[in-house]
Amino acid sequence: xxxxxxxxxxxxxxxxxxxxxxxxxxxxxxxxxxxxxxxxxxxxxxxxxxxxxxxxxxxxxxxxxxxxxxxxxxxxxxxxxxxxxxxxxxxxxxxxxxxxxxxxxxxxxxxxxxxxxxxxxxxxxxxxxxxxxxxxxxxxxxxxxxxxxxxxxxxxxxxxxxxxxxxxxxxxxxxxxxxxxx
Length: 182
Prior knowledge:
Blueprint: H1 11-30, H2 37-59, H3 63-86, H4 93-124, H5 142-148, H6 152-160, H7 175-181
Helix pairs in contact: 1-2, 1-4, 2-3, 3-4
C-alpha cells in the first residue's frame, strides 16, 4: 500500500469524492421526473460505492484485499460512467462530458494502481502470483473405486426389498432414492 496510509491523500479517492459531489447536484435536477427515480438512486449508489470501496480497501491489512477493493471501486466508476452516458436524455452534453472525463481519470488511475500493486506483489513473491490456482486433485485407485460401486444386481435387490422407510412416502422406489438412503 506504499507510503500512502490515508485514503484522503489517494488521488483516485479525491477524484471520486469530487465526482460524488457532482452526482448529487446533477441528480437533484432530475428528481422531479418520475422516469428518473431509479436512475437517481443507482447513480448516487454507484458514485458512493467508488468512495466506500476505496475507504474499505485502505482499512484492510493485506495487499490482496486492498487490490480487490480497488478493483470493485473501479467497477463502480465504470457503472457511474456508463449511466452518465445514458442520462444524455436529461442532462446537458457539457455536464455529461465533464463527468465522463472525471470517471475516465478515476478508472485509469485505479487501473494503474492495481497493476502496480499486483506487479510489486508478484515480483516479491514469485511463487505467490495473483493468478488463480486450483488445489491438486486426489484420485482413488481402481481397487478403491471398485469397492464403492453398487452393482446393478445390488440395486435390483434393494428395489425388490424396499420398505416404506427406505423410500419417500407415496413414491415408487426410484434407484436414486434408495442409493441416497443407503
